[in-house]
Amino acid sequence: MLEMLRQYISGYVALTAEDFAALGDKIVVREFDRRQLLVKVGEVEGYLSFIVKGLARMYFLKGKTEMITNIAKEGELIASSSSFLSGKPSYYYVETLEPCTLLSISRADLELAYRQSPNIEKLGRLVTTYFVLQKEEWELECMRMDTRERFLRFIGNNPELLSRVPQKYLASYLNMKPETFSRLKNHIKKRPVAGRPS
Amino acid sequence: MTYNAATYQAALEKLHHHLQGYSPLSRGEFRQMEPFLEVREFDKRVRVIQEGEVERYLNVVAFGLARKYLPVRNKEITIQLASEGHMIHSELSFHYRIPSRAVVETIEPTVFFSISYDSLEQLYEEIPGFERLGRLMITDLFIKSDTRYFNQLRKSTRERFLEYVRNHPDMVRRVPQKYLASFLNIKPETFSRLKHLTRGKSLKG
Q1: Which pLDDT belongs to residue A142?
Q2: What is the separation, in whole angstroms, between the first and last Cα of chain B?
Q3: Chain B residues whose beta carbon lies within 8 Å of the beta carbon of residue A118
Q4: What is the interface pTM, i.e. ipTM, of the complex?
Q5: What is the rounded average pLDDT for all residues in chain B?
């Protein structure tokens, strides 16, 4: 399990065996069934988690409608990230969609790890930078691409999620009506996606 | 404002003070940082980076006011407003070295402290305290952008307006109304109407 995390981290920074041990010491393995809430609106997010197995989503309620803002799978991080970083109550719910195995670290332990190693501090900076960039990219896509472009781009990048995530959630995540989503989906079944717009 | 050695020193002091708010940075560490800073001066309404250019700098506003916007179908969508002490640059372009899709434009005559990509990397290598400062500044940026994103999706026009006016009365005075309206994702007409509502009334209601 830790090997998967090591792989993920090596994409950001080269940690020494000592650094990695300092981090590994603080990580807890958490197992969840499907449909478990990891954090509720108003609670403070206690953990930053790396998904070893499973699938989770982040959402909030607008009236009675669930608005999904993130879907994360194996090899990705999941947390109500603003709440984790600020220590303030979460705006979002985080819920598992499939049974999940998570490698989690608490805010206090992560702070401790930052103080133990400059490399881990650097990892923290780079991961947070990635959060910012990902958010900016997402907002940009939402503003600049039309519904069809967003659909094609998402499916192109995450083909396996089409079969794993309930369609209404994907539609909500992509901010389109479920009918539009299923129309686009039927469309690509007939004509496989090739040369999608970058 | 005429920009000279004295105002430069004053701005540096302010920058140090502002950075202290994120992380204790000793005077020594701050002095080490100085040679990496470039001072860039712009008139009002100047595009500091255009769509299609690669962003060379991370900027911190020393004096003045700037905005970042996305040109979308003949419209400009303002996504960030930055006054003294705040960071503003085309992040995706700066980090991935790709052509920018955003434009950064000054609203008032503005002076930036700017750091190039290479200088920034060097700073992180050479000054131990800088890594922490960088992380905390980026964390703050993320929390602000997430809060704005959430507010736009979740809160009503009226709530967004009142909250902003309450928290940023100075910006309401300085930023042209159409940019504020765009930033808050409120139609200009609605924005004017809401502004009338606040006259002579307490905003607390």
Answers
A1: 80
A2: 38
A3: 128, 131
A4: 0.86
A5: 89
- Using the Cβ of A194 and the Cβ atoms of chain B, whether some distance falls under 8 Å is answered with no
User: Nearest-CA residue of chain A relative to B141?
Assistant: A132
Cβ-based contacts under 8 A for chains A and B: 76
How close does chain B come to A82, measured CA to CA in Å? 5
Residue B203: helix, strand or coil by DSSP? coil
User: Alpha helices, DSSP H only, in chain A?
Assistant: 2-10, 17-24, 81-86, 107-116, 118-144, 147-157, 161-164, 167-173, 178-190
Give the C-alpha separation, A161 to A197, whole Å.
19
Inter-chain residue contact B96 with A133, CB threshold 8 Å: yes
8 Å CB contact between A104 and A47: yes
Q: Please tell me which residue of chain B has the smallest CA distance to A123.
A: B135
pLDDT of A196 over the 90 cut: no
CATH class of the domain comprising B5-129: mainly beta
Whether A121 and chain B come into contact, CB under 8 Å, resolves to: yes
CA nearest B195: which of B203, B146, B5? B203
Question: A72 has which bridge partners?
Answer: A56
How many other C-beta atoms lie within 10 A of the C-beta of residue A171?
A: 21
Residue A78 phi/psi, 5° resolution? -140, 135
Tell me if A191 is assigned to some domain. no
Per-residue pLDDT of A102-138, as tens digits, reads 999 999 999 999 999 999 999 999 999 999 998 888 8
In a domain, A127, yes or no: no
pLDDT tens digit sequence for B4-22: 778 788 888 888 888 888 8
Asked whether residue A82 falls in the same domain as residue A166, the answer is: no
Tokens standing for residue A57: 């989503």
Q: How far is B173 from chain A (nearest CA, A)?
A: 27
Q: Is the pTM of this model over 0.90?
A: no
Q: How many residues does chain A have?
A: 198
Which structural domain range is residue A48 located in? 2-116
**pLDDT band at residue B204 using 50, 70 and 90 as cut-offs:** very low
CA-based nearest residue in chain B for residue A82: B143
